[in-house]
Amino acid sequence: MFIGHFAPAFVAAAAYSRGPKLGTYFIAAQLVDWAFFALVMLGVEKMRIDPGATVMVPFDLYFMPYTHSLAAVGAWALAMGIVVAIWHKDALGGVLAAVVVASHWLLDWLTHAPDLTIAGGDQRYGLGLWNHPEIAMPLEIGITLAAFIYYIKRSRGPAAQPLILLAVLLTFQLINWFAPPPAEASMMVYAQALIAFGVATGFAVWVGENRYFTQRGGLAAASL
């Protein structure tokens, strides 16, 4: 899953309007993938290109215990929650950021071939919806659009900015699905992933800075 990971970020930002803004939750949503590609660059975690890995995604993610095991995701979630709570002086915002990080494992479990672990080891989990495009594609687009609409309905602000963010996300997703797969795993592949996360987060920061939420009495107030 790619842009579907941002669905919990939209929901968290809209559900608790006094908390961190959308950009913070976008970082949380892909935090473990930021860490994964950084660790792959360092040779700590491993992936390779295998056209037979799944029908939709040719990535064989065969060693990622420090980012994508359930225990590791829990640790990343706790760390993110603590940082956000301290930085924003907001315990609930920290909890929501942690939940967004933790959601990454569940969403990956839905789509990945069995390559996720509980705490490393040989037992692997994954429902494998990447082998069923007729389910995986509508699911990813559906949850992203539903969360985006919830965010828009809960907030006020210029229409163009969130629509541009949505267009960027959908463009990235179409490239992810339909662009020719890379011949091999390389620094270029890893860098492209990190750049995509950075661009999406940059647009989310831009959107979040310009959205306002309806409070009691019908007043519009910026999220903190």
Describe this structure in words.
The longest helix has 22 residues, at 133-154. The chain has helices spanning 7-15, 22-29, 31-41, 70-88, 91-111, 133-154, 160-178, 187-208, and strands at residues 46-49, 59-63, 155-156, 212-214, 220-222. It is mainly α. The chain is globular.
Note the main attributes of this structure.
224 residues; two-stranded antiparallel ribbon; 8 helices; 5 strands; globular
- Kindly report the spatial arrangement of strands forming the biggest sheet: 3-4-5
Describe the global form: globular
Mean pLDDT value? 94
> How many distinct beta strands?
5
- Low-pLDDT runs of 5+ residues are 216-224
Q: Give helix and strand order, one letter per element, not per position.
A: HHHEEHHHEHHEE
Helix content: 55-70%
Count of runs of 4 or more consecutive helical residues: 8
Biggest beta sheet attributes: 3 strands, antiparallel
Proportion of beta-strand residues: 5-15%
Backbone structural class: mainly alpha
For the termini, the CA-CA separation is 29 Å
| Rg computed from alpha carbons, rounded to a whole number of angstroms | 17 Å
